[in-house]
């Protein structure tokens, strides 16, 4: 049971994810989580998620009949296809770039895809990016929780862990879309989306999955004292259900308007110039991150403190990938 020790506020300077090492290089930080302990995979494999992925598969097959692999897809083939993907992603988890650069300063996550032929190996067909600020906040929250085990500190850690776990699962749904359609040029159909995301050409598979599994898309902001807060938002972005506690016997959410949500809580991301938001990883970087050379780079285990901030397992491996 958590003690009554005084909760600590977030520190002004967030913890560094990477421990000092002679193997450090000036390049991208690339995480490879231990698949057996990855919370995002646990989310993808739950009953409601499998139902959501089946629904997504039906819709993609309906709207993208020009894709040969989907044209004759039978209903009896849908669940086996979903479960096969879950097995594939367990055995070949994509590399994860942790960065606030290349247009990631105001994004939770992003997926870069490459076309493939034959059987898909996600590690060679996709690269997932996660926001470094959120990752650092999560490590910071874990360190504070270890120093002072309190209800407030536990809630902060769980809010951040929930945010990043959903983000990772969200990105893995984008990888599933690639798994279904084989080509990086075949995007989520615009009819498949939620919360106003996407446009007339491209939908939003990750937000659709969040809606089908959680009942809304996940949004995170911060209170004036710097504590992160999480809410589920509706399709029209008019209502927010703030997640107040994870205790099953207490009230789980608090309904508020979108205006109050934005006025009461601040954006967790810093303001950046418009041209910075449009930047992406270079094609050469994606090719390198999905190619054979990265498997030969020096690697080492993250420290327990760094590791627990994301996967909560002692076997996550960190690889350093050069920018060029």
From TrEMBL:
Highest taxon in the source lineage: Eukaryota
Protein name: Uncharacterized protein
Species of the source: Chaetomidium leptoderma
């Amino acid at each position: 049971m958590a003690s009554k020790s005084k909760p600590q506020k977030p520190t002004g300077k967030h913890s560094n994810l990477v421990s000092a090492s002679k193997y450090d290089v000036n390049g991208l930080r690339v995480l490879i989580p231990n698949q057996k302990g990855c919370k995002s995979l646990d989310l993808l494999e739950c009953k409601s998620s499998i139902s959501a992925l089946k629904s997504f598969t039906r819709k993609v097959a309906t709207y993208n009949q020009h894709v040969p692999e989907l044209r004759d897809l039978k209903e009896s083939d849908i669940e086996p296809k979903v479960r096969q993907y879950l097995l594939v992603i367990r055995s070949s988890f994509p590399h994860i770039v942790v960065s606030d650069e290349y247009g990631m300063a105001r994004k939770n996550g992003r997926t870069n895809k490459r076309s493939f032929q034959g059987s898909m190996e996600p590690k060679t067909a996709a690269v997932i990016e996660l926001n470094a600020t959120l990752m650092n906040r999560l490590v910071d929250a874990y360190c504070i929780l270890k120093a002072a085990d309190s209800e407030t500190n536990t809630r902060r850690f769980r809010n951040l862990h929930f945010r990043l776990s959903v983000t990772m699962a969200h990105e893995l749904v984008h990888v599933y879309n690639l798994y279904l359609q084989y080509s990086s040029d075949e995007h989520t159909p615009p009819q498949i989306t939620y919360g106003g995301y996407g446009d007339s050409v491209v939908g939003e598979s990750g937000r659709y999955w969040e809606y089908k599994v959680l009942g809304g898309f996940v949004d995170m902001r911060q209170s004036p004292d710097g504590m992160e807060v999480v809410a589920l938002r509706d399709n029209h972005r008019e209502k927010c259900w703030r997640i107040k506690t994870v205790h099953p016997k207490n009230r789980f959410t608090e309904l508020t308007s979108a205006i109050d949500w934005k006025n009461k809580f601040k954006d967790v991301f810093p303001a950046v110039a418009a041209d910075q938001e449009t930047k992406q990883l270079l094609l050469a970087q994606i090719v390198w991150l999905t190619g054979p050379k990265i498997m030969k780079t020096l690697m080492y285990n993250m420290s327990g403190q760094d590791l627990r901030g994301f996967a909560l397992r002692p076997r996550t491996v960190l690889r350093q990938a050069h920018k060029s």
